[in-house]
Write a structure and sequence with these properties.
Chain B: This is Methylamine utilization protein. The complex is a heterodimer of chains A (403) and B (216). Chain A has 4 helices and 18 strands. Chain A has 403 residues and is mostly beta strands. The longest helix of chain A is centred in the N-terminal third of the chain and has 15 residues. Chain B is mainly beta. Classes of the chains: A mainly beta (403), B mainly beta (216).
């Protein structure tokens, strides 16, 4: 399977390495320390992506930006994974209209399937984190449950071109196909990993008795994050403000406007999820950057069958010295159950600490080591084990090849 | 560069009669700002107030404004009006270079590792250039109405050979366009000399934190 994915990706690279396409292939292989519990992708209680140990194909990403004309660009990201329900698929595919205008305020429109530019850490190709193997709790969740299938329009003014220290961008978007977002936060809780969901992919989680019982909710122990259930449009509004190229603040308000009373033939519910997100990044020097994000939101399913508030924040620092990069991140997260259904407790909270060292060996190759501890308590774990508490340690060694 | 010896011979052949016709002297300039920091990319244009017996030759090849690592190189290019400028693209990605400045309006599509046909810059003025793909790219082409100009290096130094005589002098810097470098509008050059110029303004530090902070 892995061989066929690699062969397919390599073939696409060779075809698309034309003059008009900027194409990059990234393959990352990791050695992961042994896991004690089965991961959520195999309906286990662990918040870890991998269940087994040994060598894993953790990322195979092919990105291509193709200049269709002066103003139109087509971008796509194809991902191959060894784990999960789907091994090959598309995570992003969109066209961008960016006309050349004389006015100091310039427009841009994106149409298709893409991420909102909400994360300060996922700045590498294919929405990978530049400084870590695993994403923060916030962006692990966004990578698995949030994707925009719609239109985003923005106006921006770049300060540097107008002798100003300040740049800004205002963004609005409408989208469909993001109706079940909130499911994983409620039934699995926050997790930290680098597995992005592919289009039409389903993501498993542990089968909470009240959720899966035929006589109770009778929902499946999986979700399909980009499914359209209620035919309603969601939206987000955002503003970016930057001082020179040193500091930047981004604010996003997201509301999928899902009709929480709707469910589809697979008994997948629409979850009305909305949140505020604040992202900040700052360069202390060209070699040292700090960044962080805070997320405050809530999600509602059914007639207050599930109603949860969720919070998360992280702060990270990254220091580059010659070919070496040292990074550290602290995550906090919490889900507070506010509904009356005691058979489905959704309370969870935890924190994680991540250290990463990455060494660039050449333009095509880098190696990294990452240690992480993620611990907390989660009420619904009592259905599967003796304690609500969990403590998950992860040590990964990765080799990343890019061409 | 294989034509370098030929170029050298040509320049020598042109320069020798030139230096015989006009008596040339060397002017060394060091520019610091109001805080005493060395000023890079400071431009001084010298316009002779007298008739040159033999004007200097036009450049044989176009000037070059390259694109390297999503930045214009050089950040500031100074050319005499009537000079062609070539736009190579050393990056392995697409650039869409444009200017809306009154002195020269253009757009060039630069596919990766590609050089467009040179453009002629005839009208004197400051031409701001940008890239529609990479908002943070910014460069300047200073089109001088005189063939005599200098641009300071990272240490704030530059030098120029000038025919003896009186020149109108003008200073320009991308981050301090209105800063004054000279006490008067003209200067008499009659022998080799070194000038230390101090601007009346502080030039803001370079903001070129270009890696990893792009749009995403």
């Amino acid at each position: 399977m892995v061989k066929s994915i690699k062969a397919l990706l390599l073939g696409i690279v060779l075809i698309s390495k034309g003059v008009l396409a900027d194409t990059t292939l990234l393959v990352r292989s990791s050695v992961v320390t042994p896991r004690e519990n089965t991961g959520f992708q195999q309906n286990g209680v662990s918040h870890q992506r991998f269940s087994g140990n040994g060598i894993q194909l953790s990322q195979a990403v092919l990105t291509s930006d193709i200049q269709l004309s002066n103003s139109w660009q087509l971008s796509g990201v194809v991902n191959g994974y060894e784990d999960g329900e789907q091994h090959l698929g598309i995570s992003q595919l969109f066209v961008k209209y960016r006309p050349l205008v004389a006015h100091s305020i310039k427009p841009e429109v994106k149409i298709g399937a893409f991420y909102p530019a909400i994360s300060a850490e996922n700045t590498d190709i294919g929405w990978l984190a530049r400084d870590f193997i695993s994403n923060s709790a916030i962006n692990s969740w966004i990578g698995e449950e949030l994707r925009i299938g719609g239109v985003e329009a923005s106006l921006r003014r770049n300060g540097r071109q107008h002798r100003s220290d300040w740049s800004w961008k205002l963004i609005g978007s409408v989208f469909k196909g993001n109706d079940s977002t909130g499911t994983l936060l409620s039934w699995r809780g926050f997790a930290l990993h680098d597995r992005q969901s592919l289009y039409n992919e389903r993501i498993n989680f542990a089968p909470i008795p009240w959720v899966v019982d035929e006589s109770e909710l009778a929902a499946p122990p999986w979700t399909e994050p980009f499914r359209e259930i209620d035919s309603r449009l969601g939206f987000y509004l955002a503003a970016h403000l930057a001082y020179q190229r040193k500091s930047e603040l981004r604010y996003y308000y997201y509301d999928n406007r899902a009709d929480n009373t709707q469910l589809d033939i697979d008994r997948i519910y629409a979850w009305h999820t909305k949140f505020h997100s604040f992202t900040l990044r700052h360069f202390i020097s060209p070699a040292l950057s700090v960044y962080g994000q805070a997320l405050i939101g809530d999600t509602l399913m059914g007639d207050y069958v599930v109603y949860n508030d969720f919070y998360s924040a992280y702060i990270a620092a990254s220091y580059q010295r010659a070919q070496s990069r040292f990074s550290a991140r602290i995550d906090w997260y919490q889900v507070i159950d506010r509904d009356e259904i005691s058979e489905d407790p959704n309370d969870s909270r935890g924190e994680a600490f991540t250290l990463n060292y990455t060494k660039t060996l050449s333009t095509h190759l880098n190696v990294s080591a990452e240690w992480q501890i993620n611990r907390g308590r989660q009420a619904n774990l009592l259905f599967f084990q003796d304690t609500q508490d969990y403590s998950e340690r992860l040590l990964q060694f990765a080799v990343t090849f890019r061409y | 560069m294989k034509n370098f010896p030929l170029l050298l011979c040509l320049l020598t052949v042109i320069y020798l009669p030139l230096s015989m016709a006009n008596d040339y002297v060397n002017l060394a300039v060091t520019i610091t700002d109001a805080d005493g920091n060395k000023v890079e990319n400071g431009v001084v244009i010298f316009t002779p107030t007298f008739n040159l017996e033999t004007p200097p030759p036009s450049p044989l090849e176009p000037a070059i404004m390259n694109q390297i690592n999503k930045q214009f190189a050089p950040h500031v290019l100074v050319v005499h009006a009537g000079t062609e400028v070539s736009f190579p693209n050393a990056d392995n990605l697409f650039h869409h270079v444009y200017s809306f400045s009154p002195a020269k309006q253009f757009e060039v599509k630069l596919y990766k590792e590609f050089t467009a046909e040179p453009l002629l810059f005839e009208q004197a003025g400051i031409v701001d250039i940008g890239c529609n793909i990479h908002d943070w790219m910014l460069g300047y082409i200073v089109v001088a109405d005189s063939p005599f100009f200098l641009k300071t290096d990272a240490d704030g130094n530059a030098q120029i050979d000038l025919a003896k005589g009186e020149y109108e002098v003008r200073f320009w810097h991308p981050s301090a366009a209105k800063a004054k470098a000279f006490d008067s509008d003209s200067i008499v050059i009659d022998s080799d000399k070194s000038l230390s110029l101090t601007l009346d303004k502080v030039v803001p530090a370079n903001d070129s934190f270009d890696d990893g902070f792009g749009d995403y």
